[in-house]
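Reproducibility note. Readers wishing to regenerate the assembly model reported in the main text can use the exact inputs given here. Chain order matters: entities are listed in the order in which they were concatenated for prediction.
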Amino acid sequence: MSAIMDNKREASLVGNGLFPSKDVMLDLKNLKKVYPTPKGDYVVLEDLNLQIRKEEFVTIIGHSGCGKTTMLSMIAGLNPISGGNISVLGKHIKGPGPDRGVIFQAPSLMPWMTTLQNVMLGVNQVFPHASKAQRTDIAKYYLQKVGMEDSFNKRASELSQGMQQRVGIARAFAIKPKVLLLDEPFGMLDSLTRGELQDILIEIWNKEKITAVMITHDVDEAIFLADRVVMMTSGPKAKIGDILNIDFERPRTRKSVLEHNDYYKYRKHLIDFLEH
Amino acid sequence: MKQSLTLGKVTKFMGLGFLSTLKDLFTGKLDKEDFKTFLRKTVVPIASILLFIGLWHMGAKSLYNIEANHKIEKALTDQGQEAADALRACIASGESGCQPNTLPSPSQVWDSYKSLLRDHNIIAADKAAFIEKTAALNETRIAQGLDPITYTGRPSFVDQIFRSLKTVFAGFLLALFIAVPVGIFIGLSPTLKSAFNWFIQIFKPVSPVVWYLLVFMIVKTLLIGSNEDSSFTISFISVGLCSMWATLVNTAMGVSSVDKDYINVAKVLKLGNFQKIFKVVLPSSLPLIFTGLKITLSVAWMVLIAIELLAQSPGLGLFVWEEFQNGANDSNAKIIVAMFVIGIIGFLLDRLMLTIQNWVSFDKTDAI
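Running the prediction on these inputs yields the following structure tokens for the assembly.
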């Protein structure tokens, strides 16, 4: 029980932004989102503070409609900020950009392009000065990492959902973003494929160590992937409710995580929060 | 992965699937289930064509009798019994001068079709002989910097078909080059959309005849002093302007309704405008653009006849009009021949567009 008490204490500290600023990759300060409606303003997020350190993997869970996706798309720059600010390495963001790669819930590959062309679309944009051969190598490298080496020239429309999302992962890593934003990327997949893709994601992440923020509905997924699990309160006026540190060693395997003594403690903590 | 290209796949791709069923029948590859599809897809259409020809034949016959009786009656009251008997005998003998003028029967139409082809062969031979005869002379004329002598004889029916096709393709290309870029701009920018919307709404329903008159007013003035064939210019521009609206509206709609996910990807990757349009927006709206182009081509072919007639452009439209004015014995049959030719070419143009659409579309679930 005491471990959880410690966690709670740290959560309150983290919420106030007490990490040394040189360690902070992503900083959300007093973030607010308001949607105007005919019946007055609807406040989705209010006074939301969150700091995410470099090379940290954070998962966010909360009830449907609590504003998780709104928050993520604000970090991506796809959704305007109503109040407060978001900064990456101390610089306020202005609109979307390739320093924040996104893996969307739907794979969102261009169906008229091949897998390689889909990845190249981003690579060309981020490495304009590299030679064509170098850029192709980068794209191929990441496609190999996600196990798509046999499908470079397949059209995206010919692939299954799971395969498409693999390409989505390759596309996001290939542009070497500072922050990786994942919006329930495996939500549409069956549980077997989901497990496969989690393994692929964590394997490639272990190598690249790109700061990652991932939304999920799946408690086990949240624990398996994360260094910290952020729990959001239900909206309106959602904010950070609690933060749970996951102290498993990396690299992790699914087996070692499931057999770890603390696993069920973490799980109970999250479920208690969600059911409260 | 190399896939073999069979006749069946090609015909299905072109929307002519019944042809492959026909082939299967002759090669003996049909089983019972296939036979049912064969009945439905091949036998039934053929039966309905035969039924149509039968009804047409009977209808033409009864119209013929009404017209003949009326003529004889008229001769009787105007000129007396003797003239009426002479006319009756003349009609019965099948002499062309006194035949009643009404809907021609299928066999008359077929005969006219053959006579038009004969006529074409004669004219084509004549033209070839002329070109051969003047070849040497033209060479020296060109060497001297003079215009070569060209054949100025009457165009044959086939020449007129090609003239019409040329006009419709020129008009179609004009529509394509105006409507697609304008449609893209309108679709991308809500400001441009509100600026142009009234324009589209007002000019879209304007009749082909009025478009022709408008183009005539402008082109006539622009071409003063040049000895260019203005009837062709006027008719293809009119055809283009009449038919471009479907493509314009569909392109604008396709461009403004690109899947939001794709636009988000483009935003996250910070694609430039050029890249965004050519790599994301255009490919994604191609299906709608092609639907528009298909409508444009069929509208172009439909209004072409009326516009050629007005512009005196020697294509199928003028052919129909001249035959109508001509009032010769086989004129009506020739008009019906032209009707079928127009219909069949219209159908083939539609298939052509469908084939190109399947070719470029990314959604190749059951194509080659």
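We highlight two features of this model. Residues 105-154 of chain B form one domain. Residues 32-79 of chain B form the longest helix (48 residues).
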